[in-house]
Amino acid sequence: MCDRFASKHFDEKARVLANEQMGPRLYKITLAAPKMAQAIEPGQFVHMQLTGMEAHILRRPFSVYRADREAGFIEIIYQVVGEGTSFMTSYEPGVECALIGAMGHGWQEREGKSLIVGGGVGAAPLFLFAEKLAAEGRPFEVVLGAQTESMLVTRADYAALLGRDPVLATDDGSVGHAGFCTEPVREQLATGEYATVYCCGPEPLMRAVAALADEAGVDCFVSMEKRMACGVGACLSCVVETSAGKKRSCVDGPVFDAKDVVW
Amino acid sequence: MVMALNLQVNLGGLIMPNPVTDASGTFAAGREYADFVDVSRMGAVTTKGVSLHGWEGNDSPRIAETPSGMLNSIGLQNPGVAHLCEVDLPWIKSQGVPAIVNVSGHSLEEYVQVIEALEEDGTADAYEINISCPNVDAGGLTFGTHVPSVTAVVSACREVAKRPMIVKLSPNVTDIAEIARAAEAAGADAISLINTLLGMAIDANSRRPKLARVVGGLSGPAVKPVALRMVWQCYQAVDVPILGMGGIMTGEDAVEFMLAGATAVAVGTANFTNPHAENDVLDGIIEYCERQGVEDVNELIGGLQC
Fold this sequence. Notes:
Chain A is of the alpha/beta class. Chain A is 19% helix and 34% strand. Chain A has 3 domains: 10-103, Translation factors (Elongation Factor Tu (Ef-tu), domain 3), CATH 2.40.30.10; 113-218, Rossmann fold (3-Layer(aba) Sandwich); 224-263, Dihydroorotate dehydrogenase, electron transfer subunit (Dihydroorotate dehydrogenase B (pyrk subunit), domain 3, Ribbon), CATH 2.10.240.10.
């Protein structure tokens, strides 16, 4: 078992370099954060204080989409869901935000072919991992799902890694399979090529994908997002039900073995 | 020449090297914050509430952000007193600071058994009795909101507690002074306040409560004026020292609590906003004292001029 105190957490004052709209309610913020860019592992997150929103006292956890170690920046893709993320869209280059990181246990690569499944904005926390698999020459496939084509904001970056489009699904059928991405996942698993599934997205999707993986006899890892306060494992706000009791998504996760999760 | 500043305070027999501890439940037993906080500079570490065999806690969602504050309904999830003695207390002691163990129970018996276990272990320096727990024997009624049950639980704890005993008061009462007097009369060496204020939050769009348990405890800067008022009222009502808390974010906030009558202060929700808060609040108190020419932090206690 990993020692949850093994990795050091630290602060970094990050400076906004860019903050651009990628699709409906979807934005990408680029932050100059050289220490974080060095430290972040695929699937880990940063816990960010919202500058200019002092009455909003809680930090927001954001998975890191991309990190450029040489240039010293990280990218986060966020969806506008509440007042905090709505306010974030107003951040101009130069705004400074306090980060703590690198938080949590991320994705661990395993032998054999991997199936990466990203639903909606859940595609973002898997990208660093796909990049790592590609760099190591490990075989993998990517399935992305979204409501509509314009929300598949990570499609081009994944396509650049794969050398072709990922497998796509949209609820409205505007591109790829019409419907949830569970159907393409089922088809992929039916090939029998996969050793491990890595999934991030809405909880019902992760649950469905975990069930498909289980049926196929394939291991599955999921990234659980819960409302979080401290981010360091102290407050017990973000607990996930598991077969071994309640676990903290901030330090015991966010990535969990799906067979341990009590959905 | 810079005068040496005395920061040491005596909280009902617990000697604290400085007045700053954490509010129970916001800091675990300190280790989780060790990357950000020099725990050895704290006046004490106050542990998360501990029960006899551990509790699972409540369903999720357990928190909701509210204007300048947050609601929580964690439900005192904890692994039980044996785990605390085995894992957490030795770590706190390794930092060279006093350990205040927050004691919880669902019955008089459970409080007593937790303290007995802690006395047998012998590592704790003081107890903070959380009387905001629901009393299962009384149909879930909170111990801390009625004088007779406050008297009963504090007296029962006093019989077995050989260390300084701080009683943590619930603010969800009509007359906090009456409760403070009951705790003092039943043997409290100190009182701490405020625990969280009962509140709720609703999502209008889904028409659902934001917490699984519907209601929860409000904390953060939003509660500070209420907390200051209650500390001030208690300071006038009892002779035992007060551990003041409720929305302390800065050293100046802490000084305000001391002026209202607190001997020591606890930093809670601020840890979530600023993981360095425990040290920053102490630094802020020191800076205030230097600026104001205060040589002994004890001068601040009850120093409100009105």
